[in-house]
Design brief:
6 strands; 6-stranded parallel sheet
């Protein structure tokens, strides 16, 4: 039997103070819970903004993956298990680093939810970040089901 809800899993790097994080929390707090079953995970244990998340709406589906280094296979497995157990339909990623984890978790899970990337960055300021975009994140953007830019100027810049 098909669920009456669309199961959304939001992934963000951390809940530290920032524009992308504030926007994500506003979205999570305002989505229609009669249509969506909402989960939120943050990769790094930085939860400065957790008090702003209306956790009652999420029915306790807020968790940290406790990533302590650049790549944490345990966090990928944890996400994959959650995707499978909770029958996640769509993974909504805030910026590229969470998209990497979502993509890897989707490979490990026996379920293939759609991937949506909300991209907040306009200019890359270091050579390293430019290489990461070119060889790591850009290919992930191309295989995502949806890429959302935060404004028209940003979209024009990247296109």
């Amino acid at each position: 039997m098909k669920s009456k809800y669309i199961n959304l899993l939001f992934i963000v790097s951390s809940l530290s103070f920032g524009g992308a994080e504030k926007q994500l929390i506003t979205l999570v707090n305002q989505l229609d819970t009669t249509r969506f079953r909402i989960s939120l995970t943050y990769l790094k244990n930085d939860s400065e903004l957790i008090s702003e998340v209306d956790c009652k709406r999420l029915e306790g589906r807020v968790f940290c993956c406790n990533v302590s280094n650049k790549f944490d296979i345990g966090a990928v497995r944890q996400l994959a298990q959650y995707i499978q157990d909770e029958a996640v339909d769509i993974i909504v990623c805030t910026n590229p680093y969470p998209l990497l984890y979502a993509w890897l978790a989707r490979i490990v899970a026996r379920r293939r939810p759609r991937l949506m990337e909300i991209f907040h960055t306009t200019e890359l300021d270091t050579f390293k970040s430019k290489l990461q975009m070119l060889f790591l994140y850009r290919p992930l953007f191309l295989i995502s089901d949806m890429l959302v830019y935060v404004c028209k100027n940003q979209k024009n810049y990247w296109q």
